[in-house]
Amino acid sequence: MDHAAVLRSFDLQMRRNPAGGLGTQIEQDQRVTRVVSTGDGWNAVVWTNLSADDADATIHAQIQRFGAVPQDWEWKYYSYDQPADLPRRLISAGLIPDEAEALLVADIADLALDTPPPPGVELVAVRDADGAADVVRVHDEVFGGDHAKIGTAILAGLRTRPRPVDAVLAVADGVPISAGRVEFPEGREFASIWGGGTLPAWRGRGVFRSLVAYRARLAMERGYRYLQVDASPDSRPILKRLGFAELAMTTPYRLAISL
Description:
- This protein has 259 residues and is an alpha+beta fold.
- The chain is built from 7 helices and 12 strands.
- The longest helix is centred in the middle third of the chain and has 15 residues, at 129-143.
- The protein is globular.
- The termini are far apart.
């Protein structure tokens, strides 16, 4: 895989010209691409083309734009974005960085797609509200916080054709122990995987690897060439061993709200 060429394609398809999704609209100008939720979804600056001369003014303009949006928002910074001191400028404007993640991409043809779950574990496709609720419960337990919005997005996707997202549960003795989803942006080469967190008692047994292979097969069947993930420090080494390449780092910056 030509890393530089794939990164250029990712930047053009997934950042500069994202497909959007259910309940979102894409806003673009010469310097910025934004994803703006029309409901209770994700809001973000996803691409920028800035210089030292216009960065501060553009940051201020995004703060003003999202000030009219009732939901939280983030500036999704990538390590190759310019100017080089953009992180410092974002922090100076009041935005706070979350944990950095690795942008990993694999050519699906290079992945092992026949990786089964460990004995005693079954992979179950989510097809109803109960399954979506199980995904939320697993995410809440593994990652902390409230992931109800993910359940809402999964249910909305089940009502759409073709489905923009598929979710899967790993189940042992009738109990969900891990969950993940794969998103299918229309007209793009990249499908993306999210979640995959596993309950502590089941880690290190191959559950995560089987979920990756399951979702990669779904993406291949839908005609996607690449699989992309924003990998946490825990999942990053596993995914790289499976054949994913690290192309950049990405960090969400969120506005600090004074209470």
